[in-house]
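Problem 12. The chain below contains 502 residues. Write out its predicted structure in token notation.
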Amino acid sequence: MSRRWKVTSAIALLVLFSGRLSAQAPAPLAITIAPNWASIVRVSMTKITLQAVANPPLRRGSPIHYAAWESMRALHARDARMAFWYPYPRLAVAELAAPSEGQTSWDFSLMDLLIEDFIRAANGRSVFTISTIPQWMFATDAPVEIPADPNEAVWNYEQRSRLRDESLQEVASYYERVARWYFRGGFRDELGVEHASGHHYKAGYWEVLNEPEFEHSLSPEYYTRIYDAVVGRVHRVSPRLQFVGMSLAEPEKGASFFDYFLDHSHHARGIPLDAISYHFYAHGQTGETDGAQAASFFAQADNFLQTVDKIEEIRARLSPQTQTQINETGCIAANDLSKTADSMSGKGISPAYWNLCGAMFAYLFGNLSARGIDLVGASQLLGYPSQFPSVSLVDWNTGAPNARYFALQLLIGNFSAGDRLCDRPVSTPEVFSQAFRHRGVRELLLINKTLDRETVVVAGSKGGLEQHVDMAFSGIARSRLSSDTVLLGPASVMVIQFNSRH
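Solution.
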């Protein structure tokens, strides 16, 4: 045989052998989803909403004031939460100094404008979280200096863990007067002077304090005493108002808090436990790639869902009629947590980050609705450099929505309490799905948990309307499906509305 014939024959045999191996090797399995629309496993109780935090760019006169509040109004979210946060005491506290020498310091002028804008942007009922207790009510060695500029942050405003009035009547009276200002048109102050507001707002919920294990480091016992004192006084101002307790920052560490607070024997007679609340943020790590961050965020979300299950066991055992509101959820980029020159600067946030955070929120909603959670809220309307920019739903320069916002808008527009969940959620390392019957329409929530493109075969979806948010388009894209094969873009959130109504 010639050398050329030997080489040619060897190549031919190799090609033939390789072809046989290829024919015998299994092709990658397509992700196939076939919802069982007849299997109703739960009626959803989950309201989808957001929180706004009182901060300077939301004030009138800010270049993005109107655009930011208009973005919130366009969501049509119910039970939105307005949180008055401690770094800006002039925006969050109505009485900055104790009564002295025949004078009081009551001043709602800055708070009122934020409340008015919030009420206009909210859709119906809302949650008031006027959480910052005046610092002078705590037993401190010296008063905390408050800058004249209301836009200047005071990170050391909250100090100490015990109130100076151990009977708690002072703090309870403060919140009663605040409630009267907003719900009953005004109040009489400590010196007997009448203050008229003209406000008669109708909030749905009043949340007592915020992240008490961080802010003032309150114990479960002491927080519960404060809750009872405040609720007892505010409830008589607005008997239809419901109350939210706890608002924990780290629920995974708070089993003893839940055990204590949800035990009715630890509360005064007649004090309602309408709802509890707690928070979740997935944290980025310095130096991780976008792909690694995607895997990490969904892993953190899964760990949080395990915490939710444990808390629900405690709640079901001690106070099953109490609602669960997870009213702060989001992602925090590594720079927002670091102590570097870029800390909270908003620098280095990739476009994929906003889509990823929107996908993770949708993933939490799908799983929490399957668990019977009453509310899930995205945090927050506006973050900006120096104030957790990576948690924002709108651009801090323009007030225009980002991808997180559009994912929230897609969910609010397609799902609500009262929906019927069909089958259990389907979750692979790449894709999550949950089938719903929403007002008679069959809908499927699909989420790409990766930053790769994923192909999914959805039985019976041909001809249906798909709406999605992904990195290819700024906003919510819509199209008719030409087949049952669906292509999910990186970190895509998609809702498919099937043709027939059954």
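Discussion. The chain has two domains: 29-44+419-502, 45-417. Students who got a different answer should revisit the alignment rule from Section 12.3.
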